[in-house]
Amino acid sequence: MNESNPPTAFDWTLVRSFLAVLDAGSLSGAARQLGGSQPTIGRHVAQLEQQLGATLFERGGRGLVPTAAALSIADQARSMDDSAQAIARKLTGLGSDMQGSVRVSASQIVAVHLLPGLLGALRQQLPGVTVDIVASNRMSNLLRREADIAIRMARPQQASLLARRIGRVDIGVYASAEYLRRHPAPRTAPDLLRHALIGFDQDEQIIRGLHAVGVPATRESFQVRSDDHLVHWQCLVAGLGVGFAATWLAEREPGLRRLLPDLPIPPLPVWLAVHREIRSSARVRAVFDFLASAVAQAL
């Protein structure tokens, strides 16, 4: 009687790398997410493919495309990830200890231009807490320990998250004084199409907003395009054209002038989110409460 060989146990490291590639769409993006190297992530994926006897990714025009085999195991892999992170949360000090780190995720603009001005007061109030800032424009998954607290312009939808609306961000149309010396300021919304517009590359948020106020903009209406919000901001400050910016930030920049102030641009809500399981952590709760007050005042 021949006994079958027992199945090879999954190495959790391989599954973690697989999920990172699945989410990032590339080895380099997965390496940045995990803080590892691209060759290591590639080896992990290859090892997992060998264990499963299936190809998990194929190279496409914009990166790595998951195969049907990858998609078929994605839900189970994420369940493993959620369980592993739940264990990590239990083991990394979720009690009343006020010593330790708290990871805060925020958009690039908020992380660069808003949070640094607030952290001094936070350090004075909570000297034993170390703050790790995750600068990202994507919705960080608090379930996977990418962050303990997230500042976002949309309400998180995960049922296991607690979210508090702490304010709003008003959006305005701006151009630099130097740009306006070379071009007459727009008087009506349709006039914007006669200007060098600064917008996003793949994100259609600005296009949809212009359509809502009767401006039939297309991707080709923008002479400068980037989905990186910091690049977008610097292009505006440099006088490359007319762009859209949060009023709390633009009003601090002396070289910018607001245009069409009566244009009805809907404000963006500001949400602070935290995982339900860590609401019992004194230090996370203290940072959450501090940010709820300080960010609202700064905006």
Automatic annotation (TrEMBL):
<dbReference type="Pfam" id="PF03466">
    <property type="entry name" value="LysR_substrate"/>
</dbReference>
<keyword id="KW-0805">Transcription regulation</keyword>
<feature type="domain" description="HTH lysR-type">
    <location>
        <begin position="10"/>
        <end position="67"/>
    </location>
</feature>
<dbReference type="GO" id="GO:0006351">
    <property type="term" value="P:DNA-templated transcription"/>
</dbReference>
<dbReference type="GO" id="GO:0043565">
    <property type="term" value="F:sequence-specific DNA binding"/>
</dbReference>
<protein>
    <submittedName>
        <fullName>DNA-binding transcriptional regulator, LysR family</fullName>
    </submittedName>
</protein>
<dbReference type="GO" id="GO:0003700">
    <property type="term" value="F:DNA-binding transcription factor activity"/>
</dbReference>
<keyword id="KW-0238">DNA-binding</keyword>
<dbReference type="InterPro" id="IPR000847">
    <property type="entry name" value="LysR_HTH_N"/>
</dbReference>
<comment type="similarity">
    <text>Belongs to the LysR transcriptional regulatory family.</text>
</comment>
<keyword id="KW-0804">Transcription</keyword>
<dbReference type="InterPro" id="IPR005119">
    <property type="entry name" value="LysR_subst-bd"/>
</dbReference>
<dbReference type="Pfam" id="PF00126">
    <property type="entry name" value="HTH_1"/>
</dbReference>
<dbReference type="InterPro" id="IPR058163">
    <property type="entry name" value="LysR-type_TF_proteobact-type"/>
</dbReference>
<dbReference type="InterPro" id="IPR036390">
    <property type="entry name" value="WH_DNA-bd_sf"/>
</dbReference>
<dbReference type="InterPro" id="IPR036388">
    <property type="entry name" value="WH-like_DNA-bd_sf"/>
</dbReference>
